[in-house]
Amino acid sequence: MDRVLIAANWKMNKTVGEAHRYMVDFLPRLTGWEKTEVIICPPFTCLAYLREALENTGIQLGAQDVFWEPEGAFTGEISAAMLADMGCRYVIIGHSERRHILGENDQDINRKLKAAVSCGLVPIFCVGESLPEREQGQTQTVVREQLEQGLAGLELPNLVVAYEPVWAIGTGVNASPADAQGICASIRRYLGGFQVNDWARDIPILYGGSVTARTIAAFTAQADINGALVGGASLDPEHFASIVRLNSDG
What is the number of domains present in the chain? Predict the structure, then answer.
């Protein structure tokens, strides 16, 4: 597919003031980037500012998480309707940090996917194996089970899948482009059996895990890798702009 998608996950970083300084630096650097769809997923506290700052730029706004209930007594949670109301188009669901640090399981993630879809949000659905699972040769099994349980009972008109090997996130260590391609190809094959027609062919599959400007081109050159979910490298506006430009016509 021709579409390249580069998503920034700022995680728990940046105040509104810091986000403003970032955008003042970042936006002028994006010349000739029309071939790439750019998404920024800031903390909840920056959504209102970025909704305004990204207006008429072509850059999409995303959130880092969502709760599965539409409203109610759930202190600290944010609903899909609230995210849509803030101008979000995308939402990250199932990131490994939420799975492994905050205890989310596949059933939680399935409910979150359903909530996102009900409000017209496009999920960026994260899957990936831990280092012990990789060392035991369980990568394919783990990823397939995460997909099966996460997507159970869902009909998704729009979906993005991010393959993020847990052992590569924030470590500076990447899967090799060939290894990542093998997993992403298997993800696409699984999706092909999940929903009829050519739906799976057009699903963007991203690679994540210590992606930088130095490594991005080798990943997006692979047949079944259509972009990246970028963590730490997205926090620097110059570096993130370089990643975007490397995948654009300019």
Answer: 1
